[in-house]
Amino acid sequence: MAETLLDQAREVLAIEAQALGTLSGSLDQNFVDAVDIISKMKSKAGNRGRLIIAGIGKSGHVARKIAATMASTWTPAYFVHPGEASHGDMGMIAEDDIVLMLSNSGENAELSDLIHYTRRYDIPLIAMTSNPESFLATHSDIVLLLPKLEEACPNNLAPTTSTTMMIALGDALAVTLLKQMGLTADQFRKFHPGGKLGQQLLTVTDLMHGVDALPLVGLDTTMDKAILEMTEKNMGAVIIVDDNKALKGIITDGDLKRHMSADLLQKSVTDIMSTSPMTVARSALAVEAMNIMTKTPGRYLTSLIVVDDQGAFCGMIRLQDCLQAGVA
Questions:
Q1: CB–CB of 291/165 below 8 Å?
Q2: CATH at residue 160
Q3: Does residue 75 form part of some domain?
Q4: Whole-angstrom distance, CA of residue 289 vs CA of residue 282
Q5: pLDDT tens digits, residue range 95-104?
Q6: DSSP class of residue 122?
Q7: pLDDT tens by residue, 229-281
Q8: I need a surface site. Which of 64, 82, 252, 326 has the fewest CB within 10 A?
Q9: Cβ atoms of 33 and 142 closer than 8 Å
Q10: β-strands 209-210, 77-79: how paired?
Q11: What is the spatial distance between Cα 292 and Cα 320, in angstroms, rounded to a whole number?
Q12: CATH of the domain at 257
């Protein structure tokens, strides 16, 4: 019985996977035109217009998802329900916007008012449908044609294969647009400040301690004074610098344990310090710093020296800071 159920599930996945392959092979100049018009949309005031995504039923649910993906990848977008648009929400759509409308059949009566609105005000309309002869397709500026394939549903009724292709084609649009605009990880993080994704996109700069907040001592300092400075700043390390605050070395809690002796306090910091501490660029992701600290073979570090683009000492990041921020 269990194997039968698994076979049925695998059959559905195989059907949909094959459909995605067919969809990939069917992409043509219309996809290029859609990316081009969306990436260039500008308002008369010089600001970007918005991508309005609409659909009914299961296509409406997919449209909401595509709108969310677009908005999170720097293409201003939101979902408009065609039925609500007929009762006042049409005013949410401006002439600088572009409408992307999803309908497998392209013949939903609820879409007609919104289609007519785009034609009346010369608002570009992109259709995502499997019916090139439909009312939606014939009244659109660009048609993203889905291959006409059977649904994974045994009765060929429940939207399954068709909605999977819609989601995938929406993702293809969003990611292609993202690449066209050169969205960086730092810019992407601005749209995802919370949750696990936001934590993964934190940079070293976000979590590091600047030079002024660090325990710093000179090259002529004895260990008793260095330990006092380390204790007062409570950073788990003391950093040795020259008169220009250029990095010369670091002494960590681990270094103290390795050099413990009766005359430790009378020794110079130059006798104890590590002169080649591991570093990380301030522009690196915090997760990269954490990986250096925890995954360097033969070493387990609790802090890293941070350097700027010229390699100059500019701060320190601690494992504790990364863990407290949820970086993992």
A1: no
A2: 3.40.50.10490
A3: yes
A4: 9
A5: 889 999 999 9
A6: T
A7: 998 888 889 999 998 889 999 998 888 888 888 888 999 999 999 898 889 99
A8: 326
A9: yes
A10: unpaired
A11: 14
A12: 3.10.580.10
